[in-house]
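Example 3.2
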Amino acid sequence: MRHSIEIALAMDYANPFVRRVAEGVARYGFRNGSWRFYAPHGAPEVSPAELRGWKGGGVIGMLDDRALSNLWKRGIPAVNIFGRFEKLPATSVVIDNYAIGKMAAEYFIHKGIRRYAITGRKVLGDATLKYEGYLSTLAEHGFQCLELKSRQAIEHIGAEFQALEGEGPIGVLATEDPVGRRVIEACQDHGLRVPEEVSVLGINNDRFACEMLHPQMSSIELGAERVGWQAAKMLDELMQGGALPKQPIRILPDRIVERHSTDLIAVGDPVVGDALRFIRENAHRPILVDDVARAAHVARRTLENKFRSLLSASVHDSIRRERMARACRLLKETDMLIEELAESCGYSTRERFNQAFRKETGTTPSRYRKKFRFAE
């Protein structure tokens, strides 16, 4: 029988993201078989103060450099899972916040949105990278972005949006789901239609926050369980005498869960809108640019010119992007063989799919899939 190791979780379970991180830790712990979670109050949740006299095997939690140093001085390995510290400890596993912002910007750009805003707490440390990822990706494509810097700005959202030049709907990234709810409610108070005039995307995919309103809000699923799993794996290695990591591990966000608040294709040209819908609905087929032009009832050259003018992309680029988005989703969410998956994304052979996927993502489909799995 293996010796039991007591593990403490210094977390705030009122945070829905943290609760899902704990689920990932538990999943690893049960797989390990020798972990027992410290639960002085009936639930495996402790405060930093309660750890002062504790003599267990390891700690995972919301731990800054000082808390980690105090634990290590007592011979207790510890791993941080919180990104809002001014300095992020090397023994940390956190969500890649820059990738969150980048994912949101690319999502809105692909929908044809031309005006942008962002709102939410611009907190310390790694979490500020949500802003940087969003703003820099938009800037790379020639777009500016309005920052709604306070709750008062959201309450006066109609006046704030008047500062945005151009026409068409506004894509708003809310750095937390509750903030996204406030944006949607403020839009309704000001007579702004969601998603037709304002498209709102939250972060964390807290179903309680996202689905108990109308319209329901789209949000980025972060993959908190994978953070918990990797944090537990790091702690396990440290408890076995492994070397301290040189830098934090950053986990890629999972996917965008689409609901009504972003359910639009925001281009003023109906021909381009029809073409984008055809691409989205037929990405599983080996469609060509000529097929898209026929579906939009326009000459190929005319369609290409419209795409480059409105989307800064070719029709072929849009087909490829939609296929890659489908491929990434299937790699994350299914166990389909790569051959089957390639065919379901419109590629005639696995080799052609692998080549296109590597060019787009910089890695192979198999390696990409492993990033989103719990197995070592």
